[in-house]
Amino acid sequence: MRLKSFICLCLFLGIAAASSAQGWRLGWRTDAHLAGGSEAALPFWAHTGGQGILPTISGAVLFTGADVEYKSSGDFFFEGGVNLAGWAAEAGPQGGAEVRGAVDRLYASAGWRMFRADLGMVPRKKELGELSITGGNMMWTSNARNIPGINLSADWIYPVKWFAFRGNIAHYKMSDPRSVKGAMIHDKSLEGRIEMTGRLSLSAGLEHIAQWGGVSALYGPQPASFRDYMRVFFAQGGGEDASISDQVNVLGNHLGREYIRLDYSADRFNLTFQYDKPFEDGSGARFQNMPDGVWTLKLDLKDRKAFVTDVIYEYINTTWQSGPLHDRPATDEELKGQDPSDPFYGKVSLKGRDNYFNNSMYRSGWTYYGRVIGLPLIGGLAYEEDGTVAGILCNRVRAHHVGLGGNLSKDVPYMFKATYSRNYGRYGQAHNSIYSNIPWQLSMALEVGVPRNMTGLPVDFVVGIYSDLGLLYPDSFGFILKIRHCGSRSL
After folding, report:
1. What is the rounded CA–CA span in Å between residue 446 and residue 43?
2. Number of structural domains, the chain?
3. pLDDT tens, residue order, the chain (491 aa)
4. What angle do CA 51, 366, 130 make, to 5 degrees?
5. Which residues contact 160 (CB under 8 A, 6 or more apart)?
6. How far is the C-alpha of 117 from the C-alpha of 184, rounded, in Å?
7. What is the pTM of this model?
8. C-alpha distances in angstroms, 356 versus 237, 292, 367, 391?
9. Which 3-state string (H, E, C) describes 102-138?
């Protein structure tokens, strides 16, 4: 869908909502974060999951924004909002003071019932909540900044009582400094749900993502016509203007996820099991990379005032990657059936070394503004001389993650997270890599909220304490004081 057409659709739906409206509502919010630590870098959980805005070093961040929504009696709705962020850090990544700003959120949305259209930079919903290390989608976490684009989606649609489906199709453009400037993202998903009983449901889905187009610093402009978009959409090889690799394989950098999920609703609690599996190429899509993925077990109580309301355990494994070998030399017998003009003549493909979130053409990989977009345990970035990301150094990880949430007393919520990981680096790394000895790491976080009705002040407080212990990051201790003022009113 062209941008003009999408804007016209939003305006049309907004006008339709206004014609049978129940009213506008305006909300506003200002947050100030004051962060400090015992080391130059803050602990892992002090900056992870902050939409890519929270600095990795001591400093202060100020968010301010407003959102407006309109709902009609005819089930139409219109939403829009903006959130700006500015921060001052003790020292930048290359040294020296750092004062910067960014647009965190800027969007307009319109829809009817379960259908929705988003334009701009919109945060993605976390279906497994804040305690999950991914939020429920290991490809799109809140670790990186929101990417501008267009997203058309449908929430669960029930053609029959026991079966539902939903999906989306989206187009984004990456605006950060990167190896392929102006790279675009194609994203689509399709999911199904079976209501097995009144309490138990089974869901499964597939999400396909592709980076394509843009201008490579090494290889020049990449194919970006509508015909090329269709090749990307159907995961086909590129035309004559594409690289040899993209002609032989598929055009662009393709990745995604497959998941299966069970939800059980009891009288007093909900229980969820989910297996979220990545894929980087065809072998992963065909489950050759199992058991890689995020395995989640989540329990939440329906009594939201209890001391413990939410418990989550996640096992993360990304070490197999369809095996340690991408190919092997062909035997004399195998050579007889090969075409000497084939670029892979003399080899037999084993489809291993999936190399999650990395790509030879799109060297900055699955990152945005220096943060990994997906699973945040995949990390350790390499940089070009000009400071652009040149790849991810560690995408083979095994980890255990636990989270607890609840209330210390009435109206005093808390959240605790702890993550233990072993970090293997990546296949083919140098022998002197820091990951050669498989460093272990333990990162923890405890956040406690202090609502305004306890202090008598017109603001809410959140106090966060964080720590790192291990061989990957420096042993450190950190804190964040969050001060929030928010409100809303009808217009």
Report:
1. 12
2. 1
3. 444 554 455 445 455 444 444 688 999 999 999 999 998 889 999 999 888 888 888 989 999 999 999 988 778 999 999 999 998 877 554 444 567 889 999 999 999 999 999 999 999 999 999 999 999 999 999 999 999 999 999 999 999 999 999 999 999 999 999 999 999 999 999 999 999 998 999 999 999 999 999 999 889 999 999 999 999 999 999 998 998 888 888 999 999 999 999 999 999 999 999 999 999 977 777 888 999 999 999 999 999 999 999 999 999 999 999 988 877 777 777 777 777 777 667 777 778 889 999 999 999 999 999 999 999 999 999 999 888 999 999 999 999 999 999 999 888 999 999 999 999 999 999 888 999 999 999 999 999 999 888 888 999 999 999 999 999 999 999 999 999 999 999 98
4. 35
5. none
6. 19
7. 0.91
8. 20, 11, 12, 10
9. EEEEEEEEEEECCEEEEEEECCCCCCCCCCCCCCCCC
Structure tokens at 135: 């939020």
Pairing of strands 21-37, 460-470: unpaired
State the amino acid at position 173 in one-letter form.
K
How far is Cα of residue 194 from the mean position of the Cα atoms in its chain?
26
**Side-chain half-sphere exposure of 228, counting CA atoms within 13 A:** 22
Q: How far apart are CA 297 and CA 295, in angstroms?
A: 7
**Sole residue written with tokens 């200002």:** 30
Cβ atoms of 212 and 188 within 8 Å: the answer is: no
Nearest Cα neighbor of 466 from 412, 419, 407 is 419
Q: Give the N- to C-terminal CA distance of the chain in Å, as an integer.
A: 33
Of 125, 120, 378, 374, give the one whose Cα is nearest residue 255.
374
CATH number for the domain that contains residue 242 = 2.40.160.10
Structure tokens at 491: 């217009």
Q: Which helix (H) or strand (E) holds 285?
A: helix 282-285
Nearest partner of 266 among 218, 300, 217, 224, judged by Cα: 300
- Residue 300 belongs to what domain range? 3-490
Q: DSSP states of 294-345 as a string?
A: EEEEEEEES-TTSSEEEEEEEEEE-S-TT-S-SEEEPPHHHHTTS-TTSTTT
Q: Which burial class, exposed, middle or buried, applies to 401 when counting CB atoms under 10 A from its CB (0-12, 13-18, 19+)?
A: buried
Question: 261: number of CA atoms within 13 Å, CB side?
Answer: 21
> Which residues, including other chains, have CB under 8 Å from residue 350's CB and lie 6 or more apart?
322, 323, 325, 326, 327, 328
- Strand, coil or helix: 19: helix
Three-state DSSP class for 11? Answer: helix
Check the CA dihedral 348-352-354-359 and report its sign.
Answer: negative
